[in-house]
Amino acid sequence: MARPTIRVVAYDPAWPALAAAAIEELEQALPGFMAEIEHIGSTAVPGLAAKPIIDLMAAVTDLETVERHQEVLAELGYHRHFNGMVDRLLYVRAAGGVRSHILHVVTLESWPTRNQRILRDYLRDHPADVERYARLKREIAAARVAPGDYARAKTTLIQEMTDRARAERGLPSVPVWEKTER
């Protein structure tokens, strides 16, 4: 059986609009439920090559309350996904087996220091690192690594950039690899 391949594409200027539409849809379906919601990940960084999947991160006061709203999320196409991250809830939207959106739900308390948000903001201000990151992603995808190995292969560079971004904000380094081993 053929190994699934990772598809990294050039930045698409339509990504922010797709994210905005998804955010609006979530806010309308769950009014007042999310304290914050933003477009994160590589598709949120102008000029950055990425897998064409819109990543969103929402903050709620309590993760346990999210489970009571899973039916609404499912109606929107977001289904719970377990990937070893223990500090958030993860929902994936896919059509025909192809992921289009990932919704990370985290606590409002952790929102200000979330690595994904901090790295996104850092990359928006550091075009040389955007190019380094895009080059690495293309190299990993060209090597036809397994999807789980793709994320792990990016970790060293992501850790380096996130450490710099956190230091700029006066925050300590924390590991960017958040998955527990199964």
Structural commentary:
The protein is an alpha+beta fold. Helices cover 40% and strands 18% of the residues. It contains six helices and five strands; from the N terminus they run αββααβββααα. It has helices at 15-29, 63-66, 70-75, 115-124, 127-142, 147-168; strands at 36-40, 54-60, 78-80, 89-95, 98-107. Strands 1-2-5-4-3 form a five-stranded mixed sheet, with helices on both faces. A hairpin with an 8-residue loop joins β3 (78-80) and β4. α4 crosses α6 (147-168) and α5 (127-142) packs antiparallel against α6. 27% of the residues are buried. The mean pLDDT is 92.
Summary of the model, kept short:
This protein has 182 residues and is α+β, with helices and mostly antiparallel strands. Helix content is 40%, strand content 18%.
Rounded radius of gyration (Å): 16 Å
Helix content: 40-55%
Count of helical segments? 6
Give me the secondary-structure category: alpha+beta
Major sheet details? 5 strands, mixed
| Shape by Cα distribution | globular
Alpha-carbon distance between the termini?
Answer: 23 Å
Say what oligomer this is: single chain
Secondary-structure element string: HEEHHEEEHHH
- For the largest sheet, list the strands in their spatial order: 1-2-5-4-3
Average pLDDT, rounded to a whole number, is: 92
The tally of beta strands, per DSSP, is: 5
Instruction: Outline the low-pLDDT stretches.
Output: none
Write the layout of secondary structure elements.
Elements: H1 15-29, E1 36-40, E2 54-60, H2 63-66, H3 70-75, E3 78-80, E4 89-95, E5 98-107, H4 115-124, H5 127-142, H6 147-168
Helix pairs in contact: 4-6, 5-6
